[in-house]
């Protein structure tokens, strides 16, 4: 018998709430064997990012080679990629025919406001990596930066998602966590054929560190286990909502989500609607 396996290619968060650490915790919680390739070390805590120390291109290549040539992966995710050179390295691996399904979380700016991807690398993300992705998972500011459009209304959100798909990814999940002035939060999944809406009540918590990383890691884990994209997103939405609803403080700033929340009795309820294109 062998493990179900997932690889994360991302930055390390010394504070343990986001990046590689959030991804590996999530994989473990969902009973998936996690491996990692570190793109950059960050000196980070709940208050912000105090330093970024990129891994050398050789070190990044070697980590991915070591994992893929022996252990392999049933699904792969990317998080903080830092710059164009590192994006190209990942894209070279992802372009191989037998590369597993790839989930790209286009991490650009941390909750704390710190820059995790050089601005000039956004084009490389679009051109080199998106064409290999089974799913990309931008939040609203990232989707706006990538398309140059404002996501003010539902119509403009749909337009943005169509634009993002046209860059070559099979599907896009637009996360609504940054929505202001609403009691409900809606994430929208678009696969070129239909829009799937996932509605949840907005949680009033300052402890949102690592939500995006944990969510995309959960999707990766469920896809590694063989779930279809829509099921993987639905299960992951329930996982992140519960983890966020039980998030606690760990330091002076935005605390991390509680990855183990699903072990308890509580369950999240997610309301789903589907609209054909
Ligand atoms: N206050 C909230 N209440 C309910 N769900 C939330 C809240 N904030 C974020 N989420 C959910 O958390 C997930 C991550 O969304 P978000 O838009 O915050 O992504 P992100 O900005 O990439 O995350 P991060 O904060 O890690 O950078 C989404 O499913 C989103 O709907
Ligand atoms: C290494 C790393 N990767 C990703 C994030 C984004 O997570 P968040 O927006 O929750 O800070 C982060 N802060 N650090």
TrEMBL record:
SUPFAM superfamilies: Ribokinase-like (SSF53613). It is an enzyme of class 2 (transferase). Its EC number is 2.7.1.49, 2.7.4.7. One of its GO terms (cellular component) is cytosol. It catalyses: 4-amino-5-hydroxymethyl-2-methylpyrimidine + ATP = 4-amino-2-methyl-5-(phosphooxymethyl)pyrimidine + ADP + H(+); 4-amino-2-methyl-5-(phosphooxymethyl)pyrimidine + ATP = 4-amino-2-methyl-5-(diphosphooxymethyl)pyrimidine + ADP. Residues 13-257 form the Pyridoxamine kinase/Phosphomethylpyrimidine kinase domain. InterPro entries: HMP/HMP-P_kinase_dom, PM/HMP-P_kinase-1, Ribokinase-like. GO terms for biological process: thiamine biosynthetic process. Keywords: ATP-binding, Kinase, Nucleotide-binding, Thiamine biosynthesis, Transferase. Signal peptide: none annotated. It holds the Pfam family Phos_pyr_kin. GO terms for molecular function: ATP binding; hydroxymethylpyrimidine kinase activity; phosphomethylpyrimidine kinase activity. Pathway: Cofactor biosynthesis; thiamine diphosphate biosynthesis; 4-amino-2-methyl-5-diphosphomethylpyrimidine from 5-amino-1-(5-phospho-D-ribosyl)imidazole: step 2/3; Cofactor biosynthesis; thiamine diphosphate biosynthesis; 4-amino-2-methyl-5-diphosphomethylpyrimidine from 5-amino-1-(5-phospho-D-ribosyl)imidazole: step 3/3. Belongs to the ThiD family. This is Hydroxymethylpyrimidine/phosphomethylpyrimidine kinase. It comes from Alkalicoccus saliphilus.
């Amino acid at each position: 018998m062998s493990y179900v396996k997932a690889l994360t290619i991302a930055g390390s968060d010394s504070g343990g709430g986001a990046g590689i650490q959030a991804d590996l915790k999530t994989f473990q919680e969902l009973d998936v064997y996690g491996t990692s390739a570190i793109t950059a070390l960050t000196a980070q805590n709940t208050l912000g990012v105090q330093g970024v120390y990129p891994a050398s291109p050789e070190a990044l290549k070697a980590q991915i080679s070591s994992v893929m040539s022996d252990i392999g992966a049933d699904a792969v995710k990317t998080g903080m990629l830092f710059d164009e050179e590192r994006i190209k390295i990942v894209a070279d691996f992802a372009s191989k025919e037998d590369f597993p399904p790839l989930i790209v979380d286009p991490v650009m700016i941390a909750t704390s406001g710190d820059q995790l991807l050089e601005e000039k690398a956004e084009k490389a993300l679009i051109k080199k990596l998106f064409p290999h992705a089974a799913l990309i998972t931008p939040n609203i500011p990232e989707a706006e930066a990538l398309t140059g459009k404002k996501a003010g209304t539902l119509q403009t959100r749909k337009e943005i998602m169509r634009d993002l798909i046209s860059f070559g990814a099979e599907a896009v999940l637009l996360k609504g966590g940054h929505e202001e002035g609403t009691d409900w939060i809606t994430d929208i999944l678009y696969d070129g054929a239909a829009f799937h809406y996932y509605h949840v009540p907005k949680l009033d918590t300052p402890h949102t560190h690592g939500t995006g990383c944990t969510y995309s890691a959960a999707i990766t884990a469920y896809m590694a286990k063989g779930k279809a994209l829509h099921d993987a997103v639905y299960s992951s939405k329930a996982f992140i909502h519960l983890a966020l609803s039980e998030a606690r403080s760990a330091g002076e700033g935005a605390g991390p989500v509680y990855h183990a929340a699903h072990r308890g009795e509580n369950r999240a309820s997610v309301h789903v609607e589907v609209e054909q294109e």
